[in-house]
């Protein structure tokens, strides 16, 4: 009979129905994240919304205080001085028609796409390319802006987008296994606070219904809502 791995032994003792405090869940998930790479710590928020209705859509941006632990690749549609400002701020690719053609050719290895308002005529032609990937610039998210330099800096510093899925769930990474427990907790609190503040007018009844924390390759642990600020 094969010997159980350390992780398998740990999993065998997990109580699937237990509700964990946030700090305990983060600590346990880190202990179970035994992959050879720096696993992402992820949060799933189950909301009392039906995103098929426009007044129940939940979407926004949040700056994670401790960053994401991931190098964000940013593309910017801009010309002249705005293009220069985006480049100086650290954008990975800046352009106009040339950038559009590059993306149409399939070069879409970006985490964020930003554009100045006057470039939306060009960007609009990429709707079917960027839309399905959630990369379409949006003024409500601050990715259509004249201040492209600030938008690039925010993306690079750990600003992430959250968006509710069809099942009413938001999934978001809050850092890496290598982060300290304190930094993961700060990022967790920032994400939850931003989602709660984004409660849509059409949401009736209890808004934040379930919370779970997991790692890239690990199990999900249920979190006690009594330990979640604002829940």
Automatic annotation (TrEMBL):
Family per similarity comment: Belongs to the universal ribosomal protein uL1 family.
Pfam families linked: Ribosomal_L1 (PF00687)
GO molecular function: rRNA binding; structural constituent of ribosome; tRNA binding
Quaternary assembly: Part of the 50S ribosomal subunit.
Organism encoding this protein: Sphingorhabdus lacus
HAMAP family: Ribosomal_uL1_B
Gene: rplA
Upper lineage: Bacteria, Pseudomonadati, Pseudomonadota, Alphaproteobacteria, Sphingomonadales
Keyword Plastid: no
GO biological process: regulation of translation; translation
Protein name: Large ribosomal subunit protein uL1
């Amino acid at each position: 009979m094969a010997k159980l791995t350390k992780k398998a032994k740990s999993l065998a003792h997990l109580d699937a129905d237990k509700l964990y405090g946030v700090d305990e869940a983060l600590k346990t998930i880190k202990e179970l994240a035994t992959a050879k790479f720096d696993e992402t710590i992820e949060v799933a928020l189950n909301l009392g919304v039906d995103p098929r209705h426009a007044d129940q859509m939940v979407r926004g941006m949040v700056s994670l205080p401790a960053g994401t632990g991931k190098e964000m690749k940013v593309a910017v549609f801009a010309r002249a001085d705005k293009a220069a400002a985006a480049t100086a701020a650290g954008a990975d690719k800046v352009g106009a028609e040339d950038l559009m053609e590059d993306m149409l050719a399939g070069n879409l290895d970006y985490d964020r796409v930003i554009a100045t308002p006057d470039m939306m005529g060009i960007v609009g032609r990429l709707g079917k390319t960027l839309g399905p990937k959630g990369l379409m610039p949006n003024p409500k998210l601050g990715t259509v802006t004249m201040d492209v330099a600030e938008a690039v800096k925010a993306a690079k510093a750990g600003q992430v987008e959250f968006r509710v899925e069809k099942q009413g769930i938001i999934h978001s990474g809050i850092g890496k296994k290598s982060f300290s427990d304190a930094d993961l907790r700060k990022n967790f609190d920032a994400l939850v606070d931003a989602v709660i503040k984004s409660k849509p007018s059409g949401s009736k009844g209890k808004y934040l219904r379930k919370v779970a924390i997991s790692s890239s390759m690990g199990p999900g642990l249920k979190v006690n809502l009594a330990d979640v600020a604002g829940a």
